[in-house]
């Protein structure tokens, strides 16, 4: 039979894996950023059934390099400008490895007190680093918790909001009234999903207009929608304001939106998934405007731009009670003396799943390795490179740059003289395909004012000025070449 | 400033961490199983704010050993018999480390094709290993997907069930009818939570009686509840049958329950979180009875007893369409040519979060390292040790053993001659406290027929016969000592 991997074998194979990763990261530029495989290529190269007998660990590493690597889109490649960065860093990888080695499950305080208490400490640290309000701290009425993603943070915030809006009745009675939530056309799609999941349906989602220039939510239209719904007998449960939208990093006017929420007692969730961590830099602290005064909940993702491997979203609440009331169910097998005293945090009540990994270790390792200085330097570098790129784009008559672009994302539109809007958009998509097929960059697109634009998201760990320069050269070159083939 | 950890630094610190883990696992018996710290002890030992300057990685390792370790409850300790096992294994830890090193995010096929395709392959492998039906395979109408936990798998199954029961209208309109779900008093609490989350509320949860001896769901009572609800105009959306309940590993009669579901077109979810993976052994294949014929969805947790570090729940569906319809939202920034062809799987539509880690790597590494043989040997060892313990308990007049106990869990009740039920239960809880305070074992309790019993869950990677023997000796000894102090 094949037995367990003993500690000495673990030591040996562990070194092999560490070396594999070090070599992979050192040589990452040798791979095309975006995988060039066709659907089914990887699947067909793997055996259709599990092996009957155990295999040496070297076989896993060999197949990883031979079969899987061509199917990897390299998120840590310096030419990865797609979506938003999803930073991996040495300390985060190793912090997570420690979590794997300990193999503890922190659903309750008692099931590993350090797993809970370190999490409380590091989310408090992070709140301090970002200049978030004191009342988000767990020793006040609020508190922070690590979630797997901003989607889950939004869902959890909505559950708390519904609990409060229903006077606590929704957990017992379910959705018996018409609850509504308010987003903009630029809000992340996870909000519509959360409305579906919680039984409000798309019918419960109101889409607030945005300023056509900045793409920020229009508080005047929000007020009109709230007035109409309240007149119609609906119960507004939550407004989601976004600081740094996914499409273009637009920033909703949190103070104005928050004032409307406060007047009417509506839960304000601030989704700062991408941008929130940038507030580690004092000069970007304006991103927090209105949060201390108005936010009932706030989330940001260290797993995007703050060097902490996915998954690590932090959700803070001004008052944790509605969430705990919404999610607490206490079966006999989870009862224990520590929980009974009420003196401990049981994070299982703060999230959808019951079980949880020791994710605080990786965030702790990141914050200690980099220090506040190192975190700021990383954000500043991404912002500076993006600003430099934007200046090159706006100086080139062949392109238009979308304003504003205060962070690490630059949205740009190639100009196609003589082409109508539809044909121009198709040409832009063709340009994107050519860029991504080249293997040296990976970008995505979005629409602004119904026109296709390219998104260039800067902030990878390995991305240096020369990579941004090369990407810009390549965009210009492909644009010129493609233009020459057009009528 | 503090910069990134370069590949050579990563190599060095990676080896330190690998050695730390190897030493930790080799010496794990030197720690008390259950942490003996008091609430706040760990938190107070950590600095109140993040460091301004970066620190060497050695500082993290040093504080891990000095400050955090006393606050760890050691789930991989051979004396851990609490809850269910949450196996960590060498290949799983290293597979997860590779996932961290690659740092890819597999929300869409295109964002790393290998991340999606390896997942499809390994969940198909696992379905084959467990003898699950062909129609669960992704190349048929069904398909499997890795979720973070059985709680999330139940939630996702319920969303699919509600989609089907509402004729697809719930995503648009929300909960506008009285949908009901059916569980037993022994069903995992995550089902009640899922009902709350999806807007049904506790009012939508029907609790079916159980056989007082086996604690399995009573299909006759289920039929009566369904009849009453249908007469009352409610819409039964889902029945959850459990194979191996959390409290006592009771097995609901899936064929009889499934027949009722089929007659009425109700979604049957089978929650086999703990027990399902045991079907890797042909002699335990009876656990699957009725699954092929009746289950619309089925989930089990390799992260419990199948050697794959948390988090790794696999959810399979007989028909994936209702789930995808329930959860798909396609914003512009996620559109891509591969998805547009319809020829690829985008797992983001199969789960609540948008982003996802490359969790298939750890399951792949486990299955290849152990092979089917090794996985079977691990399950068989746990079952054999549990059966041996049960035989010792039932031969001892000082204890009663709960029957049946077909897997790795033994529930036992100490007898306290002369004590009324309440006082006896208090004595049992006191016994449990003494055992857990000893540092050599960690157990939990549950209630059967309103009487407190101790749960001894066997199946840890490091747990050998001698550890079970020692635990039993200790239970007997503490019971005798405590008995002597009672009136």
UniProtKB/TrEMBL annotation, chains A, B:
Record-listed E.C. numbers: 4.1.1.28
GO function term, MF aspect, one: aromatic-L-amino-acid decarboxylase activity
Leading EC class: lyase
Cellular compartments per GO CC: cytoplasm
Residues that bear N6-(pyridoxal phosphate)lysine: 304
Keywords on record: Decarboxylase, Lyase, Pyridoxal phosphate
A single GO BP: amino acid metabolic process
Essential cofactor(s): pyridoxal 5'-phosphate
PANTHER family tied to this protein: GROUP II PYRIDOXAL-5-PHOSPHATE DECARBOXYLASE, MIP05841P
Homology family: Belongs to the group II decarboxylase family.
Name of the protein in question: Aromatic-L-amino-acid decarboxylase
Organism: Nonomuraea jabiensis
């Amino acid at each position: 039979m094949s037995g367990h991997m003993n500690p000495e074998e673990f030591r040996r194979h562990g070194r092999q894996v560490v070396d594999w990763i070090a070599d992979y990261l050192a040589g990452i530029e040798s791979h095309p950023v975006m995988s060039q495989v066709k659907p089914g290529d990887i699947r067909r190269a793997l055996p259709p059934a599990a092996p009957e007998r155990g295999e040496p660990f070297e076989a896993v590493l060999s197949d990883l390099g031979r079969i899987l690597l061509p199917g990897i889109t390299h998120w840590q490649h310096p030419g990865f400008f797609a979506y938003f960065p999803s930073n991996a860093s040495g300390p985060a990888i190793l912090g997570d490895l420690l979590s794997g080695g300990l193999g503890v499950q922190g659903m309750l305080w008692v099931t590993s007190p350090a797993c809970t208490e370190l999490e409380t400490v590091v989310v408090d640290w992070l709140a301090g680093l970002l200049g978030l309000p004191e009342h988000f701290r767990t020793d006040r009425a609020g508190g922070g918790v690590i979630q797997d993603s901003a989607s889950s943070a939004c869902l959890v915030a909505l559950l708390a909001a519904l609990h409060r809006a229903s006077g606590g009745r929704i957990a017992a009675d379910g959705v018996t009234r018409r609850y509504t939530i308010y987003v903009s056309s630029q809000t992340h799609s996870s909000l519509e999903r959360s409305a579906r999941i919680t039984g409000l349906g798309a019918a419960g989602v109101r889409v607030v207009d945005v300023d056509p220039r900045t793409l920020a939510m229009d508080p005047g239209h929000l007020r009109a929608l709230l007035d109409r719904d309240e007149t119609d007998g609906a119960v507004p449960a939550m407004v989601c304001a976004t600081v740094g939208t996914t499409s273009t990093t637009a920033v909703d006017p949190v103070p104005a939106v928050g004032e409307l929420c406060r007047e009417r007692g509506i839960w304000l969730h601030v989704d700062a998934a991408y941008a929130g961590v940038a507030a580690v830099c004092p000069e970007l602290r304006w991103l927090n405007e209105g949060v201390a005064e108005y936010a009932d909940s706030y989330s940001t993702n260290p797993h995007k731009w703050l060097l902490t491997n996915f998954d690590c979203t932090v959700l803070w609440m001004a008052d944790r009670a509605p969430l705990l009331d919404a999610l607490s169910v206490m079966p006999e097998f989870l009862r224990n003396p520590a929980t009974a005293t009420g003196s401990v945090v049981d994070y299982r009540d703060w999230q959808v799943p019951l079980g949880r990994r020791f994710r605080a270790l990786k965030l702790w390792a990141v914050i200690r390795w980099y220090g506040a200085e190192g975190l700021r330097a990383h954000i500043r570098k991404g912002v500076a490179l993006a600003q430099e790129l934007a200046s090159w784009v706006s100086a080139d008559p062949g392109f238009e740059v979308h304003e504003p672009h205060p962070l690490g994302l630059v949205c740009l539109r190639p100009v196609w003289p003589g082409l109508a809007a539809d044909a121009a958009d198709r040409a832009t998509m063709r340009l994107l395909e050519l860029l991504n097929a080249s293997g040296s960059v990976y970008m995505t697109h979005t629409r602004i004012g119904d026109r296709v634009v390219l998104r260039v998201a800067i902030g990878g760990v390995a991305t240096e000025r020369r990579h941004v320069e090369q990407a810009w050269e390549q965009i210009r070159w492909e644009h010129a070449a493609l233009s020459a083939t057009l009528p």
